[in-house]
Amino acid sequence: MTDAHDNLTFREMLASGRFHYGAEVVSTRGISAPGERSKLVELGEALAADRRIGWVSITDNPGGNPMLPADWIAQKLAAHRGRVVIHLACKDLNRNGLESAAWRYAQEGFDNILAMTGDYPVTSYGGLARPVFDLDSVSLIALLKAMNDGLEVPKPNGKLERLPKTNFYIGCAVSPFKRYERELMPQYFKLARKVHCGAQWVISQLGYDMRKFYELKLFMEWARVQAPLIGNVYVLNKTVAGLFHKNKIPGCVVSDKLHELVEKYAAGPDKGRAFFLELAAKQLAVFKGMGFAGGYLGGIHKAEVFGQVIEMAEKFGANDWKTFAKEIQFPKPDEFYLFEQNPETGLGDITQLNRTYRESLLHPPKSPHANLAYRLTRQVHAIAFTPGKGMFPSLQKFYARLEKNGDNLASRALHAIERVSKEMSFGCKDCGDCSLPDTAYLCPRASCSKTGRNGPCGGSADGRCELDDKECLWARAYERLKCYGEAGHMLDGPAVFYNAKLEGTSSWANTFLGRDHHRAAPVKTEK
Prior knowledge:
TIM Barrel, alpha/beta, about 10% strand, single chain, 8-stranded parallel β-barrel
């Protein structure tokens, strides 16, 4: 039995080379009755005291609902702060609010942060709340990394001050449970970007296909993405399985085949409880056998049941996980896998890239998303908006002279032309800090519900947005870029931060004058 209480912090556990178990505490909406002790705190304390459980992880407004903040619950477990993970999502706070929350966590000694974009709001008082999404998971990770390095901020006198370094252990999430190549590969590429930007550990989203879990591990090895990997397990019941099956909980997948099995067992005398607990225990055993750093257990509301599932997982034989790995494979029809299946293990084979995918890299297929308008836009960008090439130096000097001479009439006229042409072509929202070149010329403000500029969120299903009102921008971008052999590098580079100061100004001028996130070198004008 793995014993987590040998004075290891969460960070030390994942570096120990041994398998550890984590437990999820889901915050709730509302407060306890007067004189009644919080059941959430009781659960957290019981889990923290259980020697079988390595860490306790606390959610941040899951499912897009307003709930008790994660750090309030964490404070009640302050004696175990090194073993507490706080989720931090971007949907409710702008970057100032996120930084402020991070300073509070650091000051209080809570260093383990799971950085996420977050679910789109679904319920709110007096009508649906407008989500924030000023940052996404990638840019939040970059912010936390900058705080670890010693954040530089301007002082009132204009000089830069380096703030004390934080010690965050930054985590990120990834979903391998995507049905189509155009949806899955951007998830993998975004994972690599997250680690490049500062993520130090990885946890998977929820699904019930051990081949996909293993493939995630293989991808990280294949792409040389180095970080401890945690497998995610949720104890199902009939109601939750139905929600997962209908895509009501973003990023959580239950296929038709598994849902039929759930319905069958849920009709039994125990309502499927024994089946659901055993399924979770088997998943934990498979994670341990596969060499994951840990298993994360959720969907349970009683501390003793967490222990029951862990005990069950530990009692399996040393090689039983191999049988379970073949048994727990509930993909959707036509599921895409990056690696070919090994017939002996039933899992992926790192030496055998998906044959169809490999062939498509050599001979990229045509896509309706790579239409004539897209091809023309690429040509225009290559000619006019590529720093140092084509017309860019001349246009850079032209815009510099306009600004120097204070020619407001000409500037306003050019901005009007830009605004109308880009609105007609891309649905442009005149943000002033254009990400069209980052997103295969699909405006993130117009085509992504979360305005994501750094890659796809985990909430899409079957290639469609979490809100199911449009195709995922990043799936479309992937297909466009693949036609040109560029998909593999679609999410390279540092995190993109949108500058709200540029809202309503000319993105052309901001690009040529080096004011936007592309940061072209400013031109020197004649005196």
